[in-house]
Give the backbone structure.
Amino acid sequence: MDEEKITLQTMASGAVEELFERELDRITADILDLNTEATAVREISIKIKVKPDENRNFGSVAITVDSKIGSTKAVGSVFSFGRKGNRAVAAEFEPSQKPMFSQVGPRPVIDLKTGEVIKE
């Protein structure tokens, strides 16, 4: 038997190298994505499991290559809450925006079952 030495480049007819390159491309794209944390650690894992048969003549091999990318950066906003008629509403607050809800006087009392205004 004229066997060649197994390498990462030759294993599974070159599939390991291809899978590694795919995950490296994924990590590179994630690093360049401005919506992810810039300094988050990215990771590529190559896992090779070898299970020999009872006679130790052959073994099945399972190869996985995966990566962990950075998490998405949190974005923030401010909501203002109020009522429009009988309906409770939320709106995204913009400092330059005029008030959406009347803040004058007490708020109405609403019957939650019917939606009717009981007391203004």
Notes: The mean pLDDT is 85.
